[in-house]
Design goal:
Order of helices and strands: HHHHEHEEHHHEEEHEEEEEE
Bound molecules: 2-oxoglutaric acid
CATH class: Mainly Beta
Radius of gyration: 19 Å
Number of strands: 12
CATH architecture: Sandwich
Oligomer: single chain
Low-confidence stretches: none
Largest sheet: 7 strands, antiparallel
CATH topology: Jelly Rolls
Length: 305
């Protein structure tokens, strides 16, 4: 049987085995912003309410208008240092193995030979096992802003951290290095936090301000820089450079990408706040005990009681 057919069939088998898949892949197929909005309202009507009163109105308004809100100092230096030291002792895997049937090979970070641009990601249980990371995901300021934006109590559907390391040759292109829209739920936000200083050359994130409410370029594919320039104002293409500890909350239905890492490295934390737990690309069951006292509902994808 041709390779592609086998891969397609094994993907289908996975979808049918995973009860989250129907909702998740149906959501991916809905590209009309109007229909997505209607489905957001429907889903949120059956989702627990959250207290969003603490969210500053101007922050919420900015997030709605721009699709992004930036915090230059979300983490202090000592917390960044704690998280980095914790992560440096943990194994990573090559991001190319994310969906590999044979599973992920644990690697020691300092032993990976880097030739081309490489992305090395941490395992779910190690992320959920770090108090500082879980506390950051649950920080009251972030949760109230997210709640105000989603209009309900959020679910942390994904928590991740990965390195992007430059190689010598031309950088390997990953999907995320090209402009795209995420389709993780009918409404969602992502929080990114840099754990080292990031400039344009070491993998800065890029976001097209306002594209989360635009009906342009909504097809299910990636987009070239030229297409972005033809459809959006150049001044709205934000390159998010920043110091270690800075972070941004972003509606990544809006167009975004990571810039290729051509020198040095980037270590980033990434959190996804969704309407539901029905995300077929995240951990299938919780991986750590909730010893942190964080909200059981919001954290149910990663933490068990
Ligand atoms: O690594 C980045 O800055 C981009 C990540 C991304 O595209 C995504 O999370 O969808």
């Amino acid at each position: 049987m041709p390779q592609r057919l086998i891969a397609g069939l094994s993907r289908l088998k996975r979808y049918f085995r995973d009860r989250r898949a129907l909702y998740y892949y149906l959501n991916k197929a809905v590209r009309s912003p109007r229909l997505r909005r209607a489905l957001h309202l429907l889903v949120r009507s059956v989702t627990p309410r959250a207290d969003a009163a603490a969210a500053a109105q101007e922050d919420t308004a900015r997030l709605r208008k721009d699709g992004i809100i930036i915090r230059e100092r979300l983490l202090d230096a000592s917390t960044v240092d704690k998280i980095r030291r914790y992560l440096l002792a943990k194994p990573v895997y090559n991001l190319l193995e994310e969906y590999a049937e044979k599973g992920k090979t644990p690697l020691r970070l300092d032993e990976v030979a880097i030739t081309r641009q490489t992305k090395l990601k941490y395992f779910d249980a190690d992320i959920a096992g770090c108090r500082e990371i879980v506390d950051l995901a649950n920080s009251p300021e972030i949760l109230s802003l997210v709640s105000a934006y989603l209009g309900c109590k959020p679910t942390i559907a994904n928590m991740a951290a990965w390195w992007t390391k430059a190689g010598n040759g031309s950088p390997e292109k990953f999907y995320d290095d090209m402009f795209h829209r995420d389709v993780d739920d009918y409404k969602f936000l992502k929080l990114f936090v840099y754990l080292n200083d990031v400039a344009a050359g070491n993998g800065a994130h890029c976001f097209v301000r306002g594209s989360h409410i635009s009906g342009k370029l909504t097809a299910r594919r990636t987009f070239t820089d030229e297409e972005i320039d033809q459809n959006f104002d150049k001044s709205d293409r934000l390159v998010l450079t920043g110091k270690s500890g800075c972070g941004f909350l972003e509606d990544t239905w809006g167009l975004h990408r990571s810039m290729p890492c051509v020198e040095g490295e980037r270590l980033v934390l990434h959190f996804l706040y969704s309407l539901t737990s029905l995300n077929a690309q995240t951990t299938p069951k919780p991986v750590a005990k909730n010893t942190y006292g964080v909200d059981a509902y919001t954290n149910r994808v990663y933490l068990y009681p």
